[in-house]
Amino acid sequence: MGSLTVGYIVRRLGMFLLTVWLGTTLIFAIPRMAPGDPVAAMVSRISAQAGTISNSAEMIASWRKRFGLDEPILVQYVRYIYNASTFQLGPSLAHFPANVQDMVARAFPWTLGLLGLATLMSFIAGNVVGALLAWRRTPGLARALLPATLTFTSIPPFMLGILLIYLFAFGLKWFPFSGAYDMGGQTQWSWSFIKQVIHHGTLPALAIVITTMGFWALGMRGMMVTTDGEDYMILAQAKGLHPSRVFWLYGVRNAILPQITALALSLGALAGGAVIVEYIFTYPGMGYLLYDGIVNGDYTLIQGVVFFLIVGVALGVLIIDLLYPLIDPRISYQKK
Amino acid sequence: MTSTQNRTNTDRDAVRNKAVLEVQKLRVHYATPSGDVIAVNGVDLKVFEGETIGLVGESGCGKSTLAMSILRLVQPPGRIVSGQVQLLGTNLTALSEAELRQVRWNQIALIPQGAMNSLNPVMRVKDQIVEAIETHQGKRPQQELKERILKLLSMVGLPSRVYNMYPHELSGGMKQRVCIAMAIALTPSIIIADEPTSALDVVVQRVVAQTLLDVKRSLGVSMILIGHDMGLMAQLVDRIAVMYAGNIVEIAPVKEIFAEPLHPYTQLLLASIPSVKERKPLVVTEGLTHDLRRPPPGCIFQLRCPFVMDKCREVVPPLRELRPNHFAACHLY
Amino acid sequence: MTTEVIQEVALPEAPVGLNRWDSPWLNPKFIGGLLLVIFVVLLGIVGPLFWDITLARVASSPLNLPPVWVKNAPIMFPPPDPAHPLGTESNGRDMLALMMAAAPGSLRVGLIAAGLGMAVGILLGFTAGFIGGWPDAVIRTISDSVITIPSLAVLIVISSYVRQINIENMALLLALFAWPGPTRLIRAQVLSLRERGYVQMARLSGATTFDIMFKEMMPNLLPYLAASFTGNVSANILAATGLEALGLGPTRIPTLGMTIFYAIRAAAILRGMWWWWGFPILMLVIIFTGLFLMVVGLDEIANPRLRGIQAQ
User: Fold this and answer.
1) pTM here?
2) How far is A189 from chain C (nearest CA, A)?
3) Tens digits of per-residue pLDDT, C64-78?
4) How crowded is residue B320: how many other Cβ atoms within 10 Å of its Cβ?
5) C160 in Cβ contact with A294 (< 8 Å)
């Protein structure tokens, strides 16, 4: 297939670093531009829960020092970037003394599993449906699939999640409505545990797959139409190739390429959707961790989780970018 | 060009009796919201064994449609309305899809217009040719395939490194020659070349045209060569058929068409070729082109013919043999 | 060799071409979607004339009433009351009034954010596509970068710091991430249009860049711009709703997302109070479906080849 050149790899790595840096700087800079002092806000919240604090001024000062908030902003920034790049994300404010990076490390596999699998399934299913819809030989019955898949595309994943919980967890009681495994279950590699995981993960995954599938189907249908008009399709038929070969090797094989680019571009949005789905389902992934941080005003946790999300998505895009020349021989050292 | 040498053998006349391809009253329409556009208007055409027939006409006259409909590759909204295409005795228009697939490439191949985009961008050259071979001749050992393909490439004058390359790594002329190599891979009885040189610059045109000539000579395959450059045609073909608005208006051996063009349209076509040798005013044809949805009654060329008579507006002139082996559809004779 | 001028020949009447009813803009999907969106807009504008919108305020109505058509409601809830046809929620808000008050807000957020994003997108996209060179490289790199950043996550960080937010500020925040999509799209379209004949002609005849952009290219870009804008509105409403569902939205005025947030916080799903989160979801689904149909319709308007698929 195509080849990877050093120049291409370097450029893609550069984009990765730029994206991570840009995102990280955004989450550092903008909150600091907002009025209000996070430490004071947090102390006031503690006092609201625990009653008045007599030495609140000293407390604020010491917390400030502890978190380095009393230093000039540039110093804070440099320290922040340094810490972030070594994945030292600091302690969680609300769950002190737990470290943010440990909390994220525990939550990350759940998000990866849920988001990763759901995205993969949605991408494959959606593209196949879209390709079949554009093919003249597909029977009319299958065509009815398009409006069906598309109706659900207009629903945001988390809303479908709410509906699914209500119908299947609360109503029919077929599925549990929260968590990744049963209460008091042990996280171990046993068959019963895996069954629990699948059982708990079905509804959240379904919410994501059903709502995102239509997007791929629509795009693939459009791409197949475009591909169908290409000259190489005519020659393929003139060669007397079997229609299914033409469909897969000439049609799908070429139409899928822009879809993969679209996948890379939509990873950021998909991650956002997954975050809220996790919150709805109380799924112990990064999304729920984020919500936990919001509720408790745990700024270091929020920042740490979002940092991880930024890195994760950028990494996913990098991987797709590096794999792409292997399937499209036209992209090598030339940026398209 | 040494093409003239080939045409001196009168042996060709003896073989002429065997028609490889016979198009009978073929009619192809394109559906539009405001009525059917008649692209091919009841065309009769015979291609004999070993001969190359050139199909010329201006843009939109239906020559590409005719070629595509022989292969039954007309895409909707176009469709074959009536008529037959006989290839070595088999009626192509009556075959099922599966039977047609077997005939395609094996007996009748296509060299497409604009090879720029006719090769699958994600497959290597070798894989695309292997695909053609294996689809019709079954699985073959690697070594045999490689030898065959390298031989094909050398026949069209391409270096062996093209074997492993992707289409986007090749120039326009090279891609066109790959298409030629692929077309002859199964030694079909007839090849349809749809404007194989139109999209190329003049220098490359000559190379590709020469390649076609060499291939034709060494394989003895029949060919329908479509184009609008009469000058280029003259060097490559045995007979020329002139098409206008979906009808064939004149067919004759190439020397005779140039020496004595009978149909007024042919005369205008030839007159409009700028000449390097003599100085003559540029001819501009006047008159209207008709609406292709409603051809006028009578001769199809009446609106642009300088010699139009009343009879032309009422009676359709049949394609008659006006000189030996020289057919034209005109009331003037 | 000269040719004579031919006399005019009267041909049989050719059928008339496209009439008004064949206009590509009368795409059923586009019109259908537009009607859905208009319905929501009207609900917000005309609704308050027929229904008391002050009932959307907290503690204005009895608590936890199911909608009026529910028979056999669980006994923990009071019986339905025709005075509150869509029921009420735990804070004493009437659902019908709430929908009328909240729906326009959600639409507004999307429109403002998408409008800003579009404006920036047109500016940057045209610059990048038309001028090329290093401005193009810079714009392209940055917009590709911003697209990759998970916008919702960053927005969560930002909004969690801000205590009170209103619709306009929320839209401004969303606009931060709303511009790369249109920029990319417009840049791609400008690049492909730049080489077309009529643009070359305009350049040759000395038209200014501004003229070329707005008089030659814009009209042809219209369906794409409309599709992009509509899609953008949808995406921004989605982002806003997502933020609100997490509790990060405006608190002073009702919005659909915040209603869902309060519902979840009050465990409405598990209590069976489906009308509390059900109607906001319904409104949002109507909005999203309407916008989606509009985008699909606009896609077909822009790319005629997609129109014929069903017929094949």
Assistant:
1) 0.79
2) 31
3) 888 877 777 777 788
4) 11
5) yes
